[in-house]
């Protein structure tokens, strides 16, 4: 008799109507007490476990819920809150949790997810990308003094909660090595791995407690097994898991996002009861894993894509799974990774194009796919299989996916489409003659505060309560307001402020052919902040200009140059759900061509400076270094094709707000943007050193203040950073700007900060 089980590695927690966001923000405003927030969390967990049980999952997953972030929850679970917070006895766990997440003053409401290090001892934990996703986790801080204790009872309480609801439980934990890997050393030279010895006993105690509480399996996530690991870290796995095995708990070791490659043998050898592998991104490894993973260890196959929203081709999945099942006699079926990265359900997507909708599966629909696969593999009748087959066939033969015009354009693309006319040095001369900017020109990154009034107007427009013309007038008034305030502040290069954009990526997705967008397809980005990634299903084309009217309106209001503002092809690709039926490189190229036309139209509209944001260029880097070159080649080419429509006297800016540029400086230089603005204030300009050493040839605007904090930077502090920057970058190439856009800030602090920024630039000129 063959054994088949279905499970999930994790489930979305924000709620169908973003109930968690609503509750959290009300709590932070002081309108909800702890008990009410806890009740909101419990209600969401109960609902999400019920969905799992209803889909026939024998074990529900407990431990994937978090009020802000699962890594932060582990910091509390293991009692390693950084001492710098100086928490006193009276602080409740929840108060301490949100202090770590948002800073003691609670200002972490950023757009680009970075902290305000060095400002005060209670500043929030650093936030950074979770592997190659758009989810951000809070970075644990480790030092020689770090101690671990089993401090949090929350996980054990949630287990009891699920059991009381009648569920059998699989608990989930981040593994000890991944937890240490994700952290940062408080001081240079400290080796996080040296903490393993202190950490393991706490894991063992926890595993024993979970077992005693009747938890049948514990899923322990070690996604770092898909990275290029230093040898010491690889070695540590054997010792660590040998020790954890002494707990007697049944461990399902979970890997995802990346092939195991040289760690495949190691992962299969570890003394655990089961191994989960990513059957989507590491499909080619399934046969080896099946051979290497000795029975009676359980193999869990992540056969349903947890990172994308397409229906699974169930026939293809069955063809993969059947031989594995025949060989092993037992198989667990799961999504490839936690479903945190996809929206909750299609159920409320009434406005979605019905044909495209039939091609999709969000988290809840993925649960049904698992059930159908299980039934089909057991040889039971699976009527859903028929419907699924029809949807897959409809997508495969749809004429809407392919456009001859787009294909022809890609085909006919000249080899030099990714080249500007003249080299940078020559462009710089004509741009300076045209723009006549002072030294240390001041500018901002694009967005100004997205006020409650702006969002309310857009919500009313969407509801049908505000006619299009009135909505557009309201946005034009917001733009006029932003332009007037920038002139008053004395900025040199203005922006229109992006009032009309719900999100920098969704906004373009809504206007391009080849995309559909959801009404409720929210995915958590960090804390209570969510994005609604557009769905890119077909060939991309631009039916009409998207930003020109707004930009021209803004430019008509000022004699100073107004920057046109676009999102680059790599970021649109990276922050959308994209088609899986052609290489990402080709999809990026199609987006690049559409955005290229927008560059041309802005230029024709007399916009002299155009910024093409690429904050996700770094995030898109493959997790394995061996794949970097290929990615960087097509990604940077896509950017250059977009920018390539610009004349020599049109100044192209780009913006990136995530750190660790040093690995890819040659490729950043190869973008050949005339000006790049980057986030540097948090690192006290240290990030700029790489650009200096590399002799970065073009102009640079290193961010001079952190936009994630409402704190207003002083003129002296800004001037100090500028002087520091001028030591590594030729002063003639320096711009003055904040770290990132200002959409999550309020006007009062924005205005005060920019006034000081302009003052600092004037001092530099003098
Ligand atoms: N896609 C993307 N990824 C990114 C970033 C980014 O800017 N975009 N920045 C980095 C950090 N990530 C971030 C992700 C989200 C937000 C953010 O602020 N999200 C907003 C939603 C933005 C949005 O889509 N707004 C819509 C919908 C707003 C909304 O919720 N409206 C209410 C009604 C509001 C009202 O009546 O006042 C509703 O529909 O219920 C709009 O403005 O139109 C939020 O969660 O609150 C910020 C940073 C990295 N990744
Ligand atoms: Zn940014």
UniProtKB/TrEMBL annotation:
The active site is at 708 (proton donor). InterPro entries: Cbl-indep_Met_Synth_N, Cobalamin-indep_Met_synthase, Met_Synth_C/arc, UROD/MetE-like_sf. 5-methyltetrahydropteroyltri-L-glutamate binds at residues 18-21, 129, 529-530, 575, 619. L-homocysteine binds at residues 445-447, 498, 613. Residues 6-326 form the Cobalamin-independent methionine synthase MetE N-terminal domain. One of its GO terms (biological process) is methylation. SUPFAM superfamilies: UROD/MetE-like (SSF51726). Gene3D superfamilies: 3.20.20.210. It is an enzyme of class 2 (transferase). Binds 1 zinc ion per subunit. Its EC number is 2.1.1.14. Its cofactor is Zn(2+). Zn(2+) binds at residues 655, 657, 679, 740. Keywords: Amino-acid biosynthesis, Metal-binding, Methionine biosynthesis, Methyltransferase, Repeat, Transferase, Zinc. Residues 440-762 form the Cobalamin-independent methionine synthase MetE C-terminal/archaeal domain. Catalyzes the transfer of a methyl group from 5-methyltetrahydrofolate to homocysteine resulting in methionine formation. Belongs to the vitamin-B12 independent methionine synthase family. HAMAP family: Meth_synth. NCBIfam families: met_syn_B12ind, PRK05222.1. This is 5-methyltetrahydropteroyltriglutamate--homocysteine methyltransferase.
